[in-house]
Structure formats: C-alpha cells, structure tokens
Specification:
The complex is a heterodimer of chains A (246) and B (300).
Chain A: H1 2-14, H2 17-35, H3 41-44, H4 50-78, H5 80-85, H6 91-110, H7 114-123, H8 132-159, H9 163-185, H10 195-201, H11 203-211, H12 217-238
Chain B: E1 3-12, E2 15-25, E3 30-34, H1 41-49, E4 56-61, E5 64-65, H2 66-69, H3 71-74, E6 77-80, H4 92-102, H5 108-118, H6 134-145, E7 152-156, H7 164-178, E8 182-187, H8 190-196, E9 199-204, E10 207-213, H9 214-219, E11 222-229, H10 235-239, E12 244-251, E13 254-260, H11 266-275, E14 280-286, H12 290-298
Parallel strand pairs in B: 3-8, 3-9, 6-7, 7-8
Antiparallel strand pairs in B: 1-2, 1-4, 4-5, 9-10, 11-13, 11-14, 12-13
Helix pairs in contact in B: 4-5
Classes of the chains: A mainly alpha (246), B alpha/beta (300).
Chain lengths: 246, 300
Amino acid sequence: MASIFFKEINSFFSSLTGYIVIAVFLVITGLFLWVFSDTSIFNYNFASLGQLFAIAPTVFLFLIPSITMGSFSGETQAGTMEFLLTKPLSSADVLLGKFAASWVLVLCAILPTLIYYYSIYQLGSPVGNIDTGQVFGSYVGLIMLSGSLTSVGIFASSLTQNQIIAFLMAALMSFFMFWGFDFISTLPIFMGKSDAFVQYIGLLEHYENISKGRIDLKDLIYFISFICFFLWGTFISINKDKFAGQ
Amino acid sequence: MSVVLEHITKIYGQQRAVDDLSFSVKKGEIVGLLGPNGAGKTTTMKMITGYLRPSSGVILVDDEDVALSGKSIRQKIGYLPENNPLYHHMYVREFLGFVAKVHKLKNVQEAVKDRIRQTGLEAEQHKKIGELSKGYKQRVGLAQAIMHDPEVLILDEPISGLDPNQLIEIRQLIKQLAIDKTIIFSSHILQEVEFICDRIIILDKGRCVADKPLNQMRHSVYRQYKVRFIRPVELKKLENMEDLESVDDLGDATYLLTYSQGRDRASEIFDFTVEQDNKLILLKEEVSTLEEVFQKMTIK
C-alpha cells in the first residue's frame, strides 16, 4: 500500500496537478474570505472563519473530482491496472494507496488555511477573540467531508476509462450526496413526515452539525461509513473483470 | 517451476474465450503460445498470472493454486502484458525503483542497477519512459517483469511492433533471460517462435489444436518429398502407394509426393524405386514452414 501511496503522491507533485489544486483552492477561498466585498470578513465585522467553511465544500465539489478522475480511469486506459494487479499487490492495497494519496493532497490544500485562522486571531478585537472550538470542529468536518468526496471520486473513476466522464460523474454524485438529500427532504411526500431522516442520509446535515463545533460520534461514524461504503463499491468495481463469467 | 492448467474455461457473457484448455509446462521449458487474434492467448496468460479468474478449472504454478494463493504466488511470476503498459510520465529509474519496492526487495538500488544493466538500458536510464523508442520501452517492460528474478516468466507478444534490429536485440535478450526460467510466451510472428521456443501450443477459438515440440510440429500436418528418378514413372503406379494424398508431376522425371501426416516415408520410396527397376537420383523432404502448419490448423 505504501508503495502505491508514494507513487501517487509523487505523480501529483512531479506534475502540475498537485500545485494547481492547492493554488486553486487557496485563491478561491482567499478571494471570498478577504477580497469580495459581499463575503469579505472586513465587511462582516465578526472575527469568524464561517465564510471559509461555507465556501470550501462548493470548491471541493469540482476540485476533488479533478484530483481523483485519473486515479483508476487513467490506469485502466493505459493498461497499467493490469500491471499493478499482477504485482504482489492486492486490489485493496491499490485502492487504499490511491485513496490515501488523493485525500492527503486535499489536506495539503486545507493546511495553509490555518494562516487565515491565525490572521483573524490577530485581527480580533481584543486579539484572540475567535471561537477556537468552533473553528476546530469545522476543520474536522471539512477534513471528513473531503475524505467522503474523495471516496466518491475514486469510485466514479473506477467505473469508466474516460477521465472526463469520471470527473462529471464524480461531480454529479458529490453534488447529489452533499445537497441532494436536503432538496429531496423538502418534497411534499417527505415534508413533515420523514424529512429529518432523508436529510440525515446526506452529507450536508452532518457537515453542518460538526461545523457548529459539536463533534458528535454519530456524525463521525456517518462519515467513516460513507467512506467505507464507496471504497467497498470501488473494490467491487475494480474486481468485476476478474470474476467475469463465474 | 512448473505451470499446469487443468480444464480451464473462461466465459465472457455468451462467448467462451477459453474452452476446456489443459496443458502443462515443465520447469525450464520455453513454450510458445500461438494462435490467430481472439484465440484466447491473452486471456490464458492473464489467468496464469492471476489477473483473471477462470470460470472453471484449476491453474497450478509450482503446485500452488493461483486462484487461492493471492499475493505470494505473484512474487514467483514475472509478467509482461500485451502492449507493454508503462507509466509514461515516470523516469526509467524511478519506475524500476517503484517496481522493486512493490516487490519488497531488500536492496532496491542494487536491484534496479542490475536490471538496467541486464536489459541494456544504461544509456536511457535517466530519460522519461514516454521519450523512449518502442524497443527501449520493451526493455523497460522486460526489466520490470524480471525485477524480482521470477522463476516463471509470462510474456504476451513481447516482440510485436518492433523494427528488425530491435527484434533481434529483444529476441537475444529473451534467450539470455531464458536460462533457468520457465517461459510461456505468445506471438503471431512465427519465425520468432522458431528461434526461441522448444515447444509450441496452437490455440484456436479457445481450444488447443496442437501441442508438440517444434520439430514434430512441422510434420504434424503432412509430409512432402521431392523425388527425381532416372526415368519417368507412370503416375498411376505412384498413386497406388499407401497413404499418398497427391502427386505433382514437376517434369523431367521429378515428382512432388504429399503424404497425410505420419511417419517418414523415405525408405518406402526407395523400395518402390527398386520395385519399379528404376533409379533414385534425388530424395528430399520438403519441410513445411510453420506458417503452413499454422494456417492449416487454424483456418477451417
């Protein structure tokens, strides 16, 4: 698993992919947080990182699929999947190595935003007037959310050889898993009856819960099972050729 | 290390890609897997490496069931897939280092250096794989296949698409590697098979249509003799000979005799000549080329 992980990380950072992903994330969140007058913290007049955590999921919805779109579709298209799976690597090794590498790249994009926290901490009046507990919770939520979207992206990538299709499928599935259930819960058939349950299936509900600074075991278990579910789907998808005709 | 296939079948949807195929390869043997496109060569090889699971049947490598043994068996098998898939964005050394790590070799640097030397990649080792010529890519493919010094080597079309010079180089490389390894390799370039293999298995529509040592394979379809007598013989008398399929009169008391497959007929022809009170000036067996054998076996 480690060898796959380092190979993937190497390929992210030996090409432009890694740097562009980090740059795009920081530029977009930076603009919304500091520059655009509608959302800028200077007009908002509260020492809060709320804007970052509101905008970050939207950025991830297209940024993470662009990281993961090549992970399996690129390999199957080039035929290197066959090469990997005939080496002493299990499909779980390949899968987890690739998932971990993509997630770590996303974390590398999140990490520099700690500077935003530090800046707001210093700008607060008095200095340090920021709800650190809530920020911490939001970071945990964002990290878990990025892991979930990465697993969706990896799954989409294992379904097709075409990277563009993989990207679009991942973006659509991520969008649906994040907001879709919230929309569905407002439909008349669910409204007032099982709308809370339907909301509970989607990512948004759990992300918002954790973002409030209340790290609940329920939400963590949700995110972890979400990730496991899509990785399991990927596992089945990459092994389907092997067991064809049985 | 031996490779044994027992009643292997692989079904894709409606199609039987491999149909009840059985053969075994002894340790140290070099076997050529021949067949037209779609005959099931690649599928068979993928099943031996464990990449595909047979629909039914058992594959044993070194007496171990490939389907059950998982990762450990792949430490013993080296595989060069068809079309030689490689990471084109990686450097030669970087890629081979990755392969060495995947195999959990103790001394990665040493192993990479060894393989680069063995496959003659010294001059290209600092290039990106995508920048290499096809022949050198093939060397990289071979280098990764032999990285862990496997006892069984599976090469799927290792020489297709190479120019004549590259072809000779790669062929020699395979011959060098072949010492003390069991090799199964596929090709549709028949001359290559003649140069490298001890034994040939011809597949057609997923079935084994012939499995013989190379020299026997040439005689397995028919035997032809060119004979010249001192005086012409009546064609009718020639046609009366046992097992004779056809006689061609080439003129000048020269005939081409074609027998259905089987034993050597030289002494019978000699006896016939004595019987006819004639004299034999020329008796030459026309060895059929592998191409002819191949065509006869696979086009029906």
